[in-house]
Amino acid sequence: MKTWKIAVIAGDGIGPEVIDEGIKVLNTAAEADGTFAFDYTYFPWGCEYYTKTGKMMDEDGIEKLKEFDAIYLGAVGFPGVPDHISLWDLLLRIRKSFDQYVNIRPVKLLDGAHLPLVDVDRKDVDMLFIRENSEGEYSGAGDWLFKGQPHEVVMQNGVFSRKGTERIIRYAFETAKKEGRSLTSISKANALNYSMVFWDQVFEEVSAEYPEVETASYLVDAAAMLMIKDPKRFEVVVTSNLFGDILTDLGAALAGGIGLAAGANINPERDFPSMFEPVHGSAPDIAGQGLANPLATIWSASQMLDFFGYENRGKNVLQAIEQLMVEGEVLTPDMKGSASTSEVGSRVAEIVGTLIANEKK
Ligand code: NAD
Ligand code: IPM
Ligand code: MN
């Protein structure tokens, strides 16, 4: 039997609460399937670790993580540790060190999920965001000169390399081609007169290699408006690191809420482990009370199953999330229910078990 080695970084705030439920569901899927299993190693890294050790993760943390098949991450960040320290020393470090340059974030309205828009058909919210995840506005390059003096100067540089830009756009074209859907690029070349002019040029160049893929290109401000006014325009979407960050929180609000938004940080070459995590953060405002919605983290477990080649099982997990929401009986307060985080996880796991058992009959 194949055993997948998973590094678990539950992290801060609601991270550990939602990760427990994701693992419940992964284990049920594996047991019911019977051909594979998971072996978890927990790393206690995060803000609490930082207050004890002065580090968000071990010095050789990246070395330690290298041997795993995947990383399952809850969330990072907590009041008391500056966010730019907690996130750069852990989450962004992992994404960069493992060249997880593709961030896949579905913005798809599942059955039973709340649609906040009027005048929009449910089936019209079905996007797949492919966010550049290794450079761009998140290059980390810059400087802070004359700090604290009246003439201080801060620079935060966007870095768009030919390699980095081409590979994400090519990945998005391959995805659109495979799915038989259109590809939309979102940029901002009217104001960002180097980086986004370059982005648009590369999009045009790569587009010529994929005559079968229908394309569109929008400025990010208009795209934000159109995602609300006319979401069906967007099928597969490719965009930069920062725009992708912002637009996928907007997308979360469109597609059932932040408690349902999942993401996968992928190294497509599989030279390094990929990382699966919800889009949301550590939600300190609701942490430790069993209020957190675990569905985003469970959906990212479904993405992990897909990534390992168990697409049927990944689909079963999504079906279970949908069944749970259609039933509407076991939901957390953000979805207008009164169930706890762990009640939701247990119910999803139960449905997954039943779906797989029925399929095997
Ligand atoms: P957040 O996503 O943690 O929370 C925003 C709002 O959404 C809050 O009201 C919260 O209660 C709610 N929410 C989030 N997840 C929820 C869930 N699963 N169920 C129900 N409600 C949920 O964003 P924030 O408040 O801006 O950031 C909090 C901390 O998380 C900060 O330290 C930030 O840097 C960090 N952060 C981490 C990640 C990550 O680890 N991937 C992502 C985003 C933010
Ligand atoms: C996300 C988060 C991170 C990002 C932060 C916490 C660095 O907001 O995964 O969406 O901006 O990528
Ligand atoms: Mn974000």
UniProtKB/TrEMBL annotation:
- Write down the chemical reaction(s) this protein catalyses: (R)-malate + NAD(+) = pyruvate + CO2 + NADH
**What is the required cofactor set for this protein?**
Mn(2+); Mg(2+)
Q: Which Gene3D superfamilies match?
A: Isopropylmalate Dehydrogenase
Annotated ranges, domain Isopropylmalate dehydrogenase-like: 5-348
Q: Enumerate the GO terms in the molecular function aspect.
A: D-malate dehydrogenase (decarboxylating) (NAD+) activity; magnesium ion binding; NAD binding
Note the superkingdom of the native organism.
Bacteria
Which family, according to UniProt? Belongs to the isocitrate and isopropylmalate dehydrogenases family.
The molecule here is called D-malate dehydrogenase (decarboxylating)
